[in-house]
């Protein structure tokens, strides 16, 4: 029996998506619920599983194609024998995949020892087997083009042994080790040394200063669109303050072991900020509000978005009803979202809604920044790195672990005095965390 594989129904706010790499090829045996391909939308990446076991008979759309809800993209034969099917005319060939079709970054061809062999047909080899460039994710192909590392020579730790971006980063950090191979008859040269442009990379006249043009992913394009929209519509202003993190750090140090033993998760800084922000939102409703045409919508609930960096860009999953969450609940939920973001498993529901956001540039070493609003929200709190700084206490200069805080807000509905007092309240709660536990 022939079964059609269709694009899942998208959410109402999504009209189309882009096919990523096929995990299976025509003729492959597949089991029920095996992931055949992923579809990138402007918000999330969706997996398309096989609804029946059998053999992938043909694919009707290739990586990089734009697809819509319900579109048939492949067919599965539930009665065929593995290997019996042949690739159809719509299946991307090794040559097409290596040529950077549909905006995919091609793998570099090189004869350098330890990094692969022939570049014929744009198929990368390691001396024992051939690997189609389409078998690697866009992030891996991009790193291959930038570093010259042949993914086929890297041990994969991903699903079914696939090479991940992390594997490539680890390989890049290792010292180069020449592979044992037959003597090379021609001089060893990298593409740059030979001044031979890699497909998808243009070489300006008079040198080897390469440029690479890669289309934005849907998610990156959507991020760019939303950020520009908010700058064009909101009256964004940022106010700053600083907080002495010593009390929170001492509390964490004192109770960390007991906290982990009881709750099975570490006590981090973010849970304190979420709790402090929730209390401040209760005191200043305008910061938790949003604009809808000529109306101001005041939310009687507290759904806080936590900005998380992922392989495909910044995503903001939502912690819902934070006024009913304890520190352990918050830490567990953030941990779950971090794992889902890393594995591209975040759903539209995970990222829908939200009345306020928190972003932590301090994890990357940021000292100070002015965050951009996540519309339709009216404010966002920016955390930064913690640095020992000289401060004056009781007339004495002492060193304290200080973090700079930033609150960007929409001045159309939030007055400056409200924004300043909101940030001061967060500062006071963090510098005396017992108030969070005692509801003071």
Shape assignment: globular
Class per helix and strand makeup: alpha+beta
Distance between the termini: 67 Å
Helix share bin: 25-40%
Q: State Rg.
A: 26 Å
Overall pLDDT confidence: 78
| Share of β-strand residues | 15-25%
For the report, how would you describe the main beta sheet?
7 strands, mixed
Number of strands: 23
SSE inventory with pairings:
Blueprint: E1 2-6, E2 17-19, E3 29-30, E4 35-40, E5 45-49, E6 54-59, E7 66-67, E8 72-77, H1 94-98, E9 124-125, E10 130-131, H2 138-147, H3 165-173, H4 191-194, E11 201-202, E12 211-212, H5 218-233, E13 236-244, H6 246-263, H7 270-283, E14 289-292, E15 295-298, E16 304-306, E17 308-310, E18 313-315, E19 318-319, H8 327-342, H9 348-351, E20 356-360, E21 379-383, E22 386-393, E23 396-410, H10 416-431, H11 434-438
Parallel strand pairs: 16-20, 20-21
Antiparallel strand pairs: 1-8, 2-4, 2-7, 3-6, 4-5, 6-8, 9-10, 11-12, 13-23, 14-15, 16-19, 17-18, 21-23, 22-23
Concise structural overview:
The chain is an alpha+beta fold. It is built from eleven helices and 23 strands.
List keywords for this structure.
single chain, 440 residues, alpha+beta, OB fold (Dihydrolipoamide Acetyltransferase, E2P), Chloramphenicol Acetyltransferase, 2 domains, seven-stranded mixed sheet, four-stranded antiparallel sheet, 23 strands, 27% helix
Structural summary, described in words:
- Residues 85-89, 91-131 and 177-199 have low confidence and may be disordered.
- This protein folds into two domains: 2-186, OB fold (Dihydrolipoamide Acetyltransferase, E2P); 220-438, 2-Layer Sandwich (Chloramphenicol Acetyltransferase).
- A hairpin with a 2-residue loop joins strand 22 and strand 23.
- The N and C termini lie far apart (67 Å).
- It is of the alpha+beta class.
- 27% of the residues lie in helices and 24% in strands.
- Strands 13, 16, 19, 20, 21, 22 and 23 form a seven-stranded mixed β-sheet that branches. A four-stranded antiparallel β-sheet has the order 1-8-6-3, with no helix packed on it. It has a four-stranded antiparallel β-sheet with strand order 5-4-2-7, with no helix packed on it.
- The protein contains eleven helices and 23 strands.
- The longest helix is centred in the middle third of the chain and has 18 residues, at 246-263.
